[in-house]
Amino acid sequence: MITPVKQVNRFFMLALAPFIGLIFCLLLLRPPLETGDFIYSELSEETITPQTQAIRQELAGAKEAAVQTSSSIKRTTELYNRTTSTMSTIVQSASVQAARPETIYNQRISAKLGVPLERVNSDRLTIELYRVNPGSYKGYAMKIKLKDPTAMKMALSSEPGKAETTMQAVKRNGAIAGINAGGFADSGGKRYPLSTTVMDGKYVNGFQASFKDLFFVGLNDTGKLVGGKFFDKSSLDRLKPQFGATFVPVLLQNGKKTVIPAKWKVSPKRAPRTVIGNYKDDQLLIIVVDGYNENGSSGATLEELQGRLYKLGVVDAYNLDGGGSSSLILNNRVVNNPSDGNLRPVPTHFLFYK
Question: Taking the complete model, does pTM exceed 0.90, yes or no?
């Protein structure tokens, strides 16, 4: 017979049996934590620490190498910067020294012209306007430095026989300055350029060999003034003219005075004139002389202009169409005093672009 006490004990035993079994299983299956801790401890002390030290040593070596490399790069950079600065200074000094002869020459020729009345300066050209008044005549000189060969061109109407004033040509083409160019011949109420004329590197009416006192003058593909008498086409072709016109006579060649034919000394003796020439540094000089008529009593003689150009140091010089054709335009105004009272329409004009 089971007593009440036994019943109670049995109840608690049955109730606690699962928990006791669970604890027993945990005790039997418990992982070797202490052993693992011991292994971890052994690895930390005997294995991981030497590896860490080796890595630290390698890192320290890499750091030292990086520092040395950085220092070397810094020194190289400083040396490069000093070298670059020195070379820049040398180049700048050399450029200044190289430009000195040109500057001195320009100052010398400018001093002979006086103080400019007006100046135009751009990336393409520099124009300086001077007054010319030696006593026997009055006029203007325009010294031009072409920085770009395309800053000078010739205007010629696309319609054969059509003429226009220099002001009209300047405005039509958007130029900053202009002068009349070659001579012309009238026929059938139209006005045609005289003899050999070149436009855009091509002959307008074919090549005509120089005859009598005629000459050709124009600009080549490098912006240099070319001119003179040409008796065969190949001689002119070799100079590669991009444009040019014809008139009479030549005044200076290679720094020497040429013989002025007797006819042109008196036909007329004095007159409004337009001449163009170049210095040895390829700067251009244009002189436009005022006159009040074409009967030989006002203006300049060709000999006077020849002597003037020679004293100014011009190397080559050519007499362009004169009389009522002489015109000088700068900054949208007529600078000279045309003898006709108004500008005369002519076929060709030399224009300058800012």
Answer: no
